[in-house]
Amino acid sequence: MENTIHTNIILSESMQKSDISTEVRRKKTNKKGKKKKKWYFIPLIILYVLLAIVASLVITLFILNILFQGVYVSGASMEPTLEDGDFLYMRRRVSPNRDDIIVIQARDEKGNNLFVIKRVIGLAGDKIYQENGQLVRQQMGKEKQYCGSIGENHRDFPTVTRAVTVEVNSVFVCGDNRTNSLDSRTDWFGRLSLDGLEGVITPWSIQVKAQLKVIYKFFNVNQFVGNSMNKKEYIYGERGYCKTI
To answer: Which among 73, 106, 142, 185 is least buried, having the fewest CB atoms inside 10 angstroms?
Structure first.
């Protein structure tokens, strides 16, 4: 009888130990499962965040393209302000001011029409000339303003005695890269009619042009731009391609 009771006690104790060890293993398993579940949600959270960022960018670009006209820059005549491959936005149906950067219709040396991106130096009535290697703008009733170098290739540009007067409804434009730009300093290029004005580049898009360039490259916008242009003559395309010459 005592042996039986003793055996039962041993069995009971072993069963309790077994139950305890089983419970411990179950808790450990649950903890591991919870840890796995926690790690399982981290990639999903990252994915949702990335999708939200992409969606916000798409919506932002969609709105910008409704409010403004996109412009893709090709060429080096506006360096260092603008560089080849920059993406910008311009406002249409606005009148330019002096020192604005505009997109306007011009002709190349072969007489082909194209749209160029240049800086406005002078408006109607302004007198433009060079003085000591500097390009000068003389507005009526105001002091003369220096507008940067005349450029090494334009040392023969008129001085004050033969100053160029900008005609009505015209603009005198220059590239910021004065040593590598065809513009109003050249006789055959001349002043450009405002009838060919496409728009004025927004200052904010110039300030964030590096970010816009990255975003548009990510969405491969250049492919769509390239499909809408005449690559031989670099005609300003439906989606905003223009060349700096």
So the answer is: 142
Average pLDDT over the chain reads 78
For the cut 50, the answer to whether the pLDDT of residue 229 exceeds it is no
Find all residues with CB under 8 Å of 5, minimum gap 6, and list them. Answer: none
Of 84, 53, 58, 60, the closest CA to residue 71 belongs to 84
Residue with tokens 């089983």: 22
CB of 54 closer than 8 Å to CB of 62: no
Q: Is 77 known to be catalytic?
A: yes
Exactly one of 118, 127, 209, 243 is catalytic; name it. 118
Strand ranges of the sheet holding 192-193, from the earlier edge strand across to the other edge: 192-193, 170-174, 113-122, 101-107, 197-201, 87-91, 69-74, 241-243
Q: What Rg value do the Cα atoms of the chain yield, rounded?
A: 35
Measuring CA to CA, how many Å separate 233 from each of 21, 59, 73, 245?
82, 33, 14, 11
The pairing of beta strand 134-138 with beta strand 145-149: antiparallel
Choose, from 32, 77, 110, 209, the residue flagged as catalytic: 77
Is 209 labeled as catalytic in the residue annotation?
no
- Output the pTM of the full model: 0.70
